[in-house]
Amino acid sequence: QKEVEQDPGPLSVPEGAIVSLNCTYSNSAFQYFMWYRQYSRKGPELLMYTYSSGNKEDGRFTAQVDKSSKYISLFIRDSQPSDSATYLCAMKSTGGGNKLTFGTGTQLKVEL
Amino acid sequence: EPEVTQTPSHQVTQMGQEVILRCVPISNHLYFYWYRQILGQKVEFLVSFYNNEISEKSEIFDDQFSVERPDGSNFTLKIRSTKLEDSAMYFCASSERGTGSSPLHFGNGTRLTVT
After folding, report:
1. pLDDT over 70 at B100, yes or no
2. Distance CA B53, CA B108 (A)
């Protein structure tokens, strides 16, 4: 079983839709959960950063973590064509430095 | 907003040649990292670096790889004798602290093509 699993997509939605992106993981030591956005031929850009279980909201973005189910989500409200990118989930455990384990990324396309 | 900068954006080299990839981390950050992404695959950790020492490295980071902070601003990744399978995007990242509460900020990467 992979440490972090993420549906690669592609996921295509109309402008204005609510987008739900998800990752599952197997390592119960993961405590910090991140979502990065990656445009084509660019580096990962940090969107959301959460610790342990719960919700975090930032503008149109909401990150949810359910540690009991080992499941994290990113919701994008009122999606825009500029949200079209690959979304990467990433995780790390406490202690032992700052090494991130990434999912494969979900490619999202928001269409006019 | 401060950012991590990487040069060159694209490097083409022949198999067996040495390459040096360069990074300027965010100025008040103390921890530095290299990750790579082979085309179509996930981003993978290579190495973390703090206080002029390697903190942690992955199995990928073998004797062909080395990192250095030659001065107060640059952070480099050297590949001594490149192989075809080293072709990938290489991302530098930095963070203020080395703990889990300090997020990593990535540069835009160097695309390395080994022919």
Report:
1. no
2. 24
